[in-house]
């Protein structure tokens, strides 16, 4: 009797459950699958961000009269079109990719998108007309309409909602890492005859034909090298995804996958040849990662590690609920100003400086006159800060104030960066002042988007009425996001050109970026967050 009472007392004592109470990167389930999926996410920064440091100079190089006084205005308009072409392509295929992935599987959609992306990136580097550049940019965007599929796959791979906030950070984390590398590589590899003369110049290592101008193909196609690098990296990601990524669509999870079979054969061969564990007296245990990391997760009757909602397909009215529509609006407003900034800021840094002899608080022109390698390295350096913020600061903020609170905080920082950014024109000739000012403005914008992007994805996922329509919801979100990302840079490029013409470079910043950012901030208070505590994060370790 006494023993029974003691057992009952012990059974009532709460035991430590670290996997349920504390969510860290270490106990995140399905890390291998998330890594492969995140590597596929590299298609966007490599296709889209790599050209930003040299975009101004690329357009200038194909103009018939690049030294004409009106060239900066013309370049601003054309760069806006080139930047907008990519999300325009995304917008045209996002819903199609979502529906195809709901029917044929997530993995085939991702592999097809990556294949097209490789071709488009390679061809872009060898194009020397605005028409062909636009065509390949649109095609690359169409290929990267799979972003919604990747987000859906993330939610399906990591089914428990308490892990999803950190799981959704994996894609932006790799995106930011890829963006950092793409910006630096794009700036440094652009025009290699001039920027890397010891390799591609007249006396360069690769100038085996002794061409007096440098490596022949690099002279003819000065911006092909970054594209070749992009194509090579994306081809590697394509092979890794084909061999290691598992299908997550419930209806096709058990389907035979030739890529996985080949991948397991290669992995087994490498283990047998390299590790030789049997010879040392150890026995390799074949345990799936998911079985270990979700062993203590409560399993429902259906076998899922999270309660499932109704399995039947809801009607259109049931899908497009009021909370979902409000969240989609917020999801759209964010890239409307963020994509514009990502286009305008590198162009602004590359534009020639102006003396601004008699500036006023609203009327001044000019850029900062930075070279492409300098622009790329500067943007990449601040991008590293974004990665660190995402790893160590965002989880703490999100845990303290929730997903919606983090989104609102980020939305309040954007306007500050946009108000002060154009005043950098007045510091073009003051090296001691312009660099700290540039760092402060870009850091504020990077910090804001680091918090806003993952928060917006989580909010959209939580707004979906059922899990089996996530592909449709994220496809719609990606379509609207792509539309905003296409519209913003076009308007931004036109307003930047108008500002140069009228003698006020701040027009695009104050009349577009600031207005949209303030609208996004106001709209964030229209949103409701459901069960924020279920996705709260512990500080990253």
Automatic annotation (TrEMBL):
<dbReference type="InterPro" id="IPR011701">
    <property type="entry name" value="MFS"/>
</dbReference>
<dbReference type="InterPro" id="IPR020846">
    <property type="entry name" value="MFS_dom"/>
</dbReference>
<feature type="transmembrane region" description="Helical">
    <location>
        <begin position="223"/>
        <end position="245"/>
    </location>
</feature>
<feature type="transmembrane region" description="Helical">
    <location>
        <begin position="165"/>
        <end position="185"/>
    </location>
</feature>
<feature type="domain" description="Major facilitator superfamily (MFS) profile">
    <location>
        <begin position="33"/>
        <end position="531"/>
    </location>
</feature>
<dbReference type="GO" id="GO:0016020">
    <property type="term" value="C:membrane"/>
</dbReference>
<feature type="transmembrane region" description="Helical">
    <location>
        <begin position="133"/>
        <end position="153"/>
    </location>
</feature>
<feature type="transmembrane region" description="Helical">
    <location>
        <begin position="361"/>
        <end position="394"/>
    </location>
</feature>
<keyword id="KW-0813">Transport</keyword>
<dbReference type="InterPro" id="IPR036259">
    <property type="entry name" value="MFS_trans_sf"/>
</dbReference>
<feature type="transmembrane region" description="Helical">
    <location>
        <begin position="506"/>
        <end position="527"/>
    </location>
</feature>
<keyword id="KW-0812">Transmembrane</keyword>
<keyword id="KW-1133">Transmembrane helix</keyword>
<dbReference type="GO" id="GO:0022857">
    <property type="term" value="F:transmembrane transporter activity"/>
</dbReference>
<protein>
    <submittedName>
        <fullName>MFS general substrate transporter</fullName>
    </submittedName>
</protein>
<keyword id="KW-0472">Membrane</keyword>
<feature type="transmembrane region" description="Helical">
    <location>
        <begin position="109"/>
        <end position="127"/>
    </location>
</feature>
<feature type="transmembrane region" description="Helical">
    <location>
        <begin position="406"/>
        <end position="429"/>
    </location>
</feature>
<dbReference type="Pfam" id="PF07690">
    <property type="entry name" value="MFS_1"/>
</dbReference>
<feature type="transmembrane region" description="Helical">
    <location>
        <begin position="435"/>
        <end position="460"/>
    </location>
</feature>
<feature type="transmembrane region" description="Helical">
    <location>
        <begin position="480"/>
        <end position="500"/>
    </location>
</feature>
<feature type="transmembrane region" description="Helical">
    <location>
        <begin position="327"/>
        <end position="349"/>
    </location>
</feature>
């Amino acid at each position: 009797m006494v023993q029974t009472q003691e057992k009952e007392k012990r059974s009532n004592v709460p035991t430590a459950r670290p996997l349920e109470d504390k969510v860290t990167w270490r106990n995140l389930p399905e890390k291998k699958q998330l890594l492969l999926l995140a590597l596929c996410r590299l298609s966007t920064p490599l296709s889209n961000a790599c050209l930003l440091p040299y975009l101004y100079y690329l357009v200038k190089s194909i103009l018939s009269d690049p030294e004409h006084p009106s060239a900066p205005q013309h370049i601003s308009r054309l760069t806006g079109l080139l930047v907008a072409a990519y999300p325009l392509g995304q917008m045209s295929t996002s819903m199609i990719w979502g529906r195809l992935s709901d029917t044929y599987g997530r993995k085939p959609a991702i592999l097809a998108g990556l294949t097209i992306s490789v071709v488009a990136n390679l061809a872009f580097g060898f194009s020397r007309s605005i028409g062909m550049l636009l065509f390949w940019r649109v095609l690359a965007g169409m290929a990267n309409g799979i972003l919604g599929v990747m987000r859906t796959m993330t939610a399906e791979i990591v089914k428990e909602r308490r892990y999803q906030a950190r799981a959704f950070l994996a894609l932006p984390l790799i995106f930011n890492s890829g963006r950092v590398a793409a910006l630096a590589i794009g700036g440094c590899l652009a025009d290699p005859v001039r920027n890397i003369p010891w390799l591609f110049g007249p006396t360069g290592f690769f100038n085996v034909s002794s061409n007096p101008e440098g490596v022949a193909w690099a002279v003819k196609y000065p911006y092909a090298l970054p594209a070749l690098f992009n194509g090579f990296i994306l081809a590697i990601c394509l092979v890794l995804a084909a061999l290691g990524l598992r299908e997550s669509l419930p209806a096709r999870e058990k389907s035979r996958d030739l890529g996985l079979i080949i991948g397991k054969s290669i992995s087994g061969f490498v283990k047998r040849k390299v590790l030789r564990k049997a010879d040392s007296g150890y026995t390799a245990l074949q345990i799936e990662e998911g079985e270990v990391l979700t062993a203590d997760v409560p399993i429902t009757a259906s076998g899922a590690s999270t309660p499932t909602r109704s399995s039947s397909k809801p009607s259109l009215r049931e899908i497009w609920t009021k909370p979902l529509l409000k969240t989609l609006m917020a999801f759209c407003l964010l890239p409307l100003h963020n994509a514009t900034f990502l286009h305008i800021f590198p162009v602004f840094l590359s534009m020639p400086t102006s003396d601004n002899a008699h500036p006023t608080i609203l009327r001044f022109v000019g850029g900062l006159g930075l070279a492409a390698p300098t622009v790329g390295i500067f943007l990449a350096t601040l991008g590293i800060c974004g990665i660190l913020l995402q790893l160590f600061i965002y989880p703490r903020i999100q845990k303290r104030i929730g997903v919606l609170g983090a989104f609102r905080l980020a939305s309040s920082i954007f306007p500050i960066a946009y108000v002060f950014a154009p005043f950098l024109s007045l510091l073009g000739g003051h090296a001691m002042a312009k660099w700290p000012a540039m760092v402060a403005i870009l850091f504020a914008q990077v910090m804001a988007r680091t918090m806003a992007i993952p928060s917006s994805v989580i909010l959209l996922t939580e707004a979906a009425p059922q899990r089996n329509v996530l592909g449709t919801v994220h496809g719609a979100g990606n379509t609207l996001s792509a539309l905003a990302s296409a519209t913003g840079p076009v308007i931004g490029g036109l307003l930047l050109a108008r500002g140069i013409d009228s003698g006020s470079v701040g027009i695009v910043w104050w009349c577009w970026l600031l207005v949209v950012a303030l609208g996004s901030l106001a709209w964030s208070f229209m949103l409701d967050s459901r069960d924020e505590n279920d996705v709260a994060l512990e500080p990253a370790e």
